Amino acid sequence: MKLLLLHGWGGSDWPHWQAWLASEVAKDYGTVSFPLIQHPHYPRLNRWRKEVLHHLEDFRPDTVVCHSLANTLWFHLAHREEIPYPVERLFLVAMPSLNTRLETISTFYPCPLPEQLYAKEIQLIVSDNDPYITVEEAEQIAEHYAIPLTVLPGAGHINAESGYGEWAWILEQIKNEE
Predict the structure, then answer these.
(1) Where are the alpha helices (DSSP H) in the chain?
(2) Sign of the CA dihedral 94, 97, 102, 108?
(3) Burial, 141: exposed, middle or buried (Cβ in 10 Å; 0-12, 13-18, 19+)?
(4) Can you give the residue range of the structural domain that contains 170?
(5) One Pfam family name from the record (predicted)?
(6) N or C: which end of the chain has fewer CB within 10 A?
(7) Could you give the number of structural domains in the chain?
(8) Residue 148 in contact with residue 124, Cβ under 8 Å?
């Protein structure tokens, strides 16, 4: 497995579940890339876009796990048809609304629904009390792409602040290859 983890606004350093997941996959001799995208606290779409395209082309992952703003970035890359090849599996975790209106991340919005997401298998994972997306919008996105939706009860934005450091469920999903 070649796993690419893409963090959201502010990064996903320890004790965030993405940092934990990177170490767990590496322990089992998986190949992991978990880049810190430039200026995570003040993201700009074009800068993030160029950087992630570079990682996709150089690392060539088969599995990509996006958290938060990285989901929006993936949608922009897919909409522009810039993703160089379809990945085997794509996990969209804690996706924010496609119409988010926050000044610091305004270059990412509004975000179009791309025709395709450049992945053979896709899972959308949200929480029923995420402050950045409603379950109804997540259901619409999942229905649009005919992909499975997992709604976690009371998980907030599915980050360290909401108790998601060690997250055995996501590790099991990552390891559960076809």
Answers:
(1) 17-27, 45-59, 69-79, 135-145, 168-175
(2) positive
(3) buried
(4) 2-175
(5) Ser_hydrolase
(6) C
(7) 1
(8) yes
Q: Give the contacts of 81 (CB within 8 A, at least 6 positions apart).
A: none
Query: Residue 131's domain is classified under what CATH number?
Result: 3.40.50.1820
Give me 118's structure tokens: 């450049």
Beta-carbon-side half-sphere exposure of residue 146 (alpha carbons within 13 Å): 3
Q: What pLDDT, on a 0 to 100 scale, did the predictor assign at position 161?
A: 95
The amino acid present at 72, given as its one-letter code, is T
Residue 152: strand, helix, or coil: strand
